[in-house]
Amino acid sequence: MRLLIVDDGHYVVEYMKHLLDWKSFGINQIETTTNSIEAREWLNQRHVDILITDIRMPEVSGIDLLQHIHQHNLLTKVIILSGYSQFEYAQQGIRLGALDYLLKPVDKDDVEKAMAKAIKNIKNTTPRPAVQWESFDGLGWLLSLLGENETIRKEFEAYTDLLGSRLFRCLKMGNCTQADIEDLQHKLGDQWTRLVWSSGTQLVGLVPEEVAEMLITKPGCLVLSPPFSITDRNDTRQLFYEFFLGEYVQSTDFGGIFNLSPSCGDWESAGNIMKSYDRIHLRKEKILFLMETILYVYMVDKERNPSETADWIFNRLRDPDELWPTLMDTVSQIRNNKQMSIQTIVGKVQKYIEDHLSHGLSLDELGKVAHLHPVYLSKLFKQETGENVSNYISKKRLERASHLLLDSELRIADISQMVGYKKNQYFIQLFKEEFGVTPYQYRRNMIHQ
């Protein structure tokens, strides 16, 4: 489990960090910060089991952190640190869901009791996430560690939490015989081979440190990185980019680049990524930008061959300008396919409307036809055709009515029913608004022309 300690006093943080034998409570990762804004980002980006926080801090208070946890439905359990004069704040914290509050100066026995309460609460209310290792997507998990996309990060969060207690090493294996490769795969087993891929003439990937120790092969065949913890995303990314792509990156390198990158489903941004890439000049920044673009492609194109994606990441990304045209073509193809899919859906809905004009034709009914949420269908239809679904239905009904008035001798009341209007007077009113005359006048005028 992961513990986060937050206090704007450095001495308090250090005191709390070394106060207890945290491992005896099942805490294997302890994070500390004196910056409450950074703490809030921590809560956003990583799963925190228990938060111990000062209640009064500049900029973002402990109450603010509690509200953030409550608003985002996070599972984090909170213990508040407060002074005697802050009792009302502590009460507010309890109302917001804090498990306990401790008065400063903090007593060791009180902390132990509060932690025991938090651990018991976690065991009682937080079921262990179900992880299906047989369907573990190693490449998707790697991209969730390297990228900034919150959707893919949450998708693999359960795996990251379970693997977070291990140390990993990056692996490169080249100049090896087929027998060497088969021996390595045998030692890895099915679970860990999901984190190793072929790239060009070598094998590359991540392996747990205890597994790496078994992979001793002939000299020069296997290269391993220093061990690292996947729980620190900055360390993971820094080591990955340096080991595989020869670039030293820092956490500050990521912010601006990812503001330019496409996010999953953002087709307008996808159409503009060429302009974004043209504004980047440093090789490092180009690599970071293209890695996020690769993540985007991986998320929206589920049919893509994973070995091609692995080749992009571990091999071709070394020359970003050479890889860029390939990625741009891929993104354009995805966008075109998406547009074709939208046109197909809208066309299907339009045909259904024209074939069922006597029906009520509610958005719920049309949503079932398109297999889309009614609200999303409405937005998609307007985006593609330039008009609302209701306007399109009305237009088609009145068009059909005008043809029936000329091509049949049906009564106007019957025509009204056939095109979906149960109230004859309402139909006459809409028809006159559209054609400037009543249905009866329309039929008479057209026949006598």
Automatic annotation (TrEMBL):
<dbReference type="InterPro" id="IPR018060">
    <property type="entry name" value="HTH_AraC"/>
</dbReference>
<keyword id="KW-0963">Cytoplasm</keyword>
<keyword id="KW-0805">Transcription regulation</keyword>
<dbReference type="InterPro" id="IPR020449">
    <property type="entry name" value="Tscrpt_reg_AraC-type_HTH"/>
</dbReference>
<keyword id="KW-0804">Transcription</keyword>
<dbReference type="InterPro" id="IPR018062">
    <property type="entry name" value="HTH_AraC-typ_CS"/>
</dbReference>
<keyword id="KW-0597">Phosphoprotein</keyword>
<dbReference type="Pfam" id="PF00072">
    <property type="entry name" value="Response_reg"/>
</dbReference>
<keyword id="KW-0902">Two-component regulatory system</keyword>
<dbReference type="Pfam" id="PF12833">
    <property type="entry name" value="HTH_18"/>
</dbReference>
<feature type="domain" description="HTH araC/xylS-type">
    <location>
        <begin position="347"/>
        <end position="445"/>
    </location>
</feature>
<dbReference type="InterPro" id="IPR001789">
    <property type="entry name" value="Sig_transdc_resp-reg_receiver"/>
</dbReference>
<dbReference type="InterPro" id="IPR051552">
    <property type="entry name" value="HptR"/>
</dbReference>
<protein>
    <submittedName>
        <fullName>Response regulator</fullName>
    </submittedName>
</protein>
<keyword id="KW-0238">DNA-binding</keyword>
<dbReference type="InterPro" id="IPR011006">
    <property type="entry name" value="CheY-like_superfamily"/>
</dbReference>
<dbReference type="InterPro" id="IPR009057">
    <property type="entry name" value="Homeodomain-like_sf"/>
</dbReference>
<feature type="modified residue" description="4-aspartylphosphate">
    <location>
        <position position="54"/>
    </location>
</feature>
<feature type="domain" description="Response regulatory">
    <location>
        <begin position="2"/>
        <end position="119"/>
    </location>
</feature>
